[in-house]
Write a structure and sequence with these properties.
about 300 residues; mainly alpha; 2 domains; three-stranded antiparallel β-sheet; 8 strands
């Protein structure tokens, strides 16, 4: 009996010892991951600082196209965006609700188990399924990303467009003091590099970027009326794209807002009344007529 009691005491002490050590191991792993993530951000930030905010041909004064960014740059951009959104009271929905909302709003079916982390929503061609890795210029590239792991949507932003890099990464920021603002390309043309620190409106732009992402996600995935109101005054094009480009008409307040702003423009009105899906199917949005029939007579006649 004594042998049995000693054996049980040994088992209990061993179990207690393992339980005491486990949190330390988890914390050490977490710290290691954090350190690794910081190193990655520093390397990406270094690349983006040396690349500059913009580059121009000195002789012609014409802005050069921005180079392709890496998937790791996109990943870190989305992670930083998630961090900013999470501190704003954004409620991250579960996988099921997220996939249902994405399907309902954007018409995209997400495979949450796929190795593809990001989906690009191409506003120039919603049927294009390629992952574009160029920043928006409004002509060749225009769209935003769905992050399956982060469970949010966001455009791509460079790190200086999301955080105060001078404050957060002062050692990396010092590179700007040493870097040249001119270089020569392979054809002998002089390239002028505009530093991030030279953009006087960068701080305001950064705040706008963060607020835009917060409001888009809280409106779409948390049904936030306050953020819908902010978008109406500050991000009207995004709201109009939801209806005109993706054919999302289930939100009556959204549809009413977009319809009120476009019913006198025939070409824009057509985009609201019907949408052609990627399979060729044409869907007429009867919800538009349900709204319009309650308008006053003069407005109804114009419609």
């Amino acid at each position: 009996m004594k042998v049995f009691n000693l054996y049980m005491l040994f088992i209990c002490l061993s179990t207690y010892s393992c339980q005491k050590k486990q949190p330390e191991n988890i914390e050490m792993l977490s710290n290691k991951e954090i350190k690794m993530n910081v190193n990655i951000i520093e390397e990406i930030l270094k690349k983006q600082i040396l690349q500059g905010a913009n580059q121009y041909f000195e002789e012609a004064g014409v802005e050069m196209p921005k180079p392709q960014f890496s998937e790791e740059e996109l990943r870190q951009s989305m992670q930083l965006t998630l961090k900013a959104v999470s501190t704003s009271g954004y409620n991250i929905v579960d996988d099921k609700e997220f996939t249902l909302k994405v399907k309902s709003i954007f018409g995209r079916t997400l495979d949450m188990l796929s190795n593809h982390e990001y989906i690009y929503l191409n506003l120039l061609n919603i049927c294009d399924r390629n992952l574009v890795k160029y920043p928006d210029n409004g002509i060749d590239y225009n769209g935003f990303y769905i992050g399956k792991k982060e469970k949010l949507i966001s455009p791509f932003y460079y790190i200086p467009e999301l955080l105060d890099y001078k404050k957060e990464y002062p050692n990396v920021a010092k590179l700007e003091n040493k870097m040249s603002t001119k270089s020569e390309d392979k054809d002998g043309d002089i390239i002028v590099i505009e530093k991030w620190s030279g953009i006087s409106s960068l701080e305001n732009k950064r705040s706008e970027n963060i607020q835009r992402v917060i409001s888009r996600n809280k409106y779409l995935f948390n049904d936030s009326k306050a953020d819908f109101a902010w978008l109406k005054f500050n991000d009207k094009i995004f709201l109009e794209n939801l209806v005109k480009t993706f054919g999302y008409v289930k939100d009556k307040d959204l549809l009413a807002f977009v319809l009120e702003n476009n019913y006198k423009k025939q070409e824009e009105l057509e985009k609201i009344i019907w949408n052609q899906k990627c399979g060729g199917e044409i869907v007429v949005n009867k919800e538009v007529f349900d709204l319009a029939k309650n308008w006053k007579k003069k407005k109804d006649m114009n419609f």
